[in-house]
Amino acid sequence: MFQKDFKPALRFMVVSDIHYKDEPCVEEERMAKALQIAYRLSEESESYKKLDAVYAVGDFANSGTETQMRKFKATLDKYCKEETQFCLMMASHEYHGGGVEKAHELFKEIFDIPVDNHRVINGFHFISMTCSHACEFEDDKVDFAKKALKEAREADPKKPIFFFQHPHITDTVSGSIYWADEKFYTTFMDFPQVIDFSGHSHVPINDPRSIYQKHFTALGTGSLSYFELDEFDKYYGTVPPNKADCAQMLLVEADENGRVRIYPYDVLTDNFFPFVWEIDEPWNPESFKYTDARYKTDKAPYFPENTLLQVTDVTDKGFKLTFSQAKSDDEYVNDYKIVVKEKATDTIVKQSCLWSEYYFYNMPETLSITFDDLDSGKDYTVDIFAGSFWNTLSKPVSTEVTTK
Q1: How much is the pLDDT for 5?
Q2: Is the pLDDT of residue 1 over 90?
Q3: For the segment 214-226, what is each residue's pLDDT rounded down to a tens digit?
Q4: How do beta strands 161-165 and 124-129 pair?
Q5: Residue 303 class from Cβ within 10 Å (0-12 exposed, 13-18 middle, 19+ buried)?
Q6: Cα 183 from chain centroid?
Q7: By CB neighbour count within 10 A (0-12 exposed, 13-18 middle, 19+ buried), where does 243 fall?
Q8: In this structure, is the dihedral angle defined by the CA atoms of residues 166, 170, 171 and 172, taken in order, positive or negative?
């Protein structure tokens, strides 16, 4: 729930990568549900009962057709109250249907807001930028951003400036190497009070690397459509099984002193994720908590004594391995590395990785993986390591198996 000792002067909701389609789609239901949840939680709040704004950070339309844009506007019209401002921006998917010029024409006609937007809500500055083309920005966009940022800073240098664009800022949050644009990075360095929201990658918002602070604050905004994760060593690739069981949003509060609270929320199960990101001095990088210093840790996941470790379906070529999840005292387990060695020579013959599925609010208690292409009649050892988000590994749990 919202922190009871925090007294907001502002509350808004952020979603991205919604992907409305021409045909009826589950994303419509999820967007409606997200709005209904945000209003319900606001009304249940003891200290502040408003939802002041809704920001959709690009890819709200799967291919940018008029049908998709009008359907999204219809959802906003049906569920947004008069007190709530909405703002959207466009990027790659909105341009798929008819190109940049056509998308801009439809956007202006249907939503009647500028594609690049600077507005003040309850005394806080909000700046949003639509991509020039695909997921890139030209120099005129940077000029617009600089002017707006300077105006916001002059109004109050210690208040956060909320900034929104579809691609991540390169080398910030998880997903920001491949799914990013670097154009605003050096501009933001002069404005540490920027709190930037971006999507594009579909990386889960409850990944603790989805908030990043160095010169400014950056946040990933997840998806209401499907997950994709920016790690390339998993045996099923970057898109996990059950990828479509995905609907996440951020709820953001700020108080009159400029302090900020950010609540990651699981729309599918209607639950807050069990942590809050706190930014008390957004203008002061020395106060930042969510920096690369998080990698300087010895803390690692661990397997409890009663860990299930089961080998089944043994053939002449392989076997199935099932194990229960490891534990972590501070946050989720990120993933598992499994090493299969030929026992006689201690030679690695298989290595595989899979996620813990932390991105589901209700994580599975056990995970399974099948190994094949082994030799018949050989003895193998199997070691399982649990990994944190900060590159630390647990001590392994181990077993042995003999192929038929």
Answers
A1: 95
A2: no
A3: 999 999 999 999 9
A4: parallel
A5: buried
A6: 21
A7: middle
A8: negative
Q: Mean pLDDT across the stretch 188-208?
A: 98
Query: Which SS3 state, helix, strand or coil, does residue 296 take?
Result: coil
Residues of the chain above pLDDT 70, percent: 100
**CATH annotation of 8-295:** 3.60.21.10
H or E segment to which residue 352 belongs? strand 347-355
- Mark residue 202 as left, alpha or beta (left: phi above 0; alpha: psi -120 to 50; beta: remaining): left
Q: In terms of Cα–Cα distance, which of 325, 298, 328, 329 is closest to 392?
A: 298
Range 309-402: architecture per CATH: Sandwich (2.60)
Residue 270 amino acid letter: D
Evaluate if residue 97 carries a pLDDT over 90.
no
Helix (H) or strand (E) holding 10: strand 8-15
Rounded Cα–Cα distance for residues 142 and 156 (Å) = 21
Residue 55: half-sphere exposure toward Cβ, Cα within 13 Å: 32
Picking from 247, 266, 382, the residue whose alpha carbon sits closest to that of residue 323 is 382
Q: In the chain, where are the structural domains located?
A: 8-295, 309-402
Whether residue 229 contacts residue 221, with contact meaning beta carbons closer than 8 Å, is answered with: no
What's the gap between Cα 182 and its chain centre?
18
Which token pair is 379?
């003895």
Q: For tokens 């002449």, what's the residue?
A: 316
pLDDT value for 371? 98
Residue given tokens 């590159």 in the structure block? 391
Identify the band that residue 330 occupies on the pLDDT scale cut at 50, 70 and 90.
confident
